[in-house]
Amino acid sequence: MVGEEGAFVLGWDEVLTEEELSVTLKVLCMSEEEFKEYKEQDGWEDDSEEEENSTLSNEALSRLKAPCKKLLYDSVLLTLESYGADLKAEQDLLNNKEAYEKLSRREQQALHVRYGQKRILHQLLELVQ
C-alpha cells in the first residue's frame, strides 16, 4: 500500500502521497468485519465522488476520524524518536553560529533537511491531536 519506499511524503500544506496514505489509513482503521468485506471485494472498486475529489490537505488531516488521527499521531512519534536529536537541539545548533560553522558543508545541509523534516512532523502532530 505504501509503494516501493515504504514511506509517505508530507509537505507543508498537504500529503504528497495522499492516495497511499488514504488507503492505508482506511485499511488499518477497519474492523475485522470491514476488512473481510474489503478483501472479498478486492478493495474498493467504486470510490465515492467525495473520496475521489478530496485531498489530504492539512485541513482534511485535522478532520480525520479519531482512530486514524491516533494512528498517524503514534506513527509520527515513532518517526521522531528515530532521529538522534529533537527539534529544539537542531534549532539550537542552527542558531549557534560558531558550532554551525564547525560542521562540514554536507553536515550543514543534512542539518537543514532534518530540521525541515522535524518541523513538518511536529506540524502534523498538532493537526492530528
TrEMBL record:
Question: Which of UniProt's keywords are assigned here?
Answer: Methyltransferase, Nucleus, S-adenosyl-L-methionine, Transferase
Question: Which part of the chain is the Rubisco LSMT substrate-binding domain?
Answer: 4-121
Q: Which GO terms describe its molecular function?
A: methyltransferase activity
Q: Which domain of life is it from?
A: Eukaryota
Q: Does the keyword Transferase apply?
A: yes
Biased composition regions of type Acidic residues, renumbered to the chain: 43-53
GO aspect biological process, one term: methylation
Name one cellular component (GO) term. nucleus
Q: Which InterPro entries match?
A: Rubisco_LSMT_subst-bd, Rubisco_LSMT_subst-bd_sf
Name of the protein? N-lysine methyltransferase SETD6
Specify the species.
Answer: Panurus biarmicus (Bearded tit)
Taxonomic lineage of the native organism:
Eukaryota, Metazoa, Chordata, Craniata, Vertebrata
* Encoding gene (name): Setd6
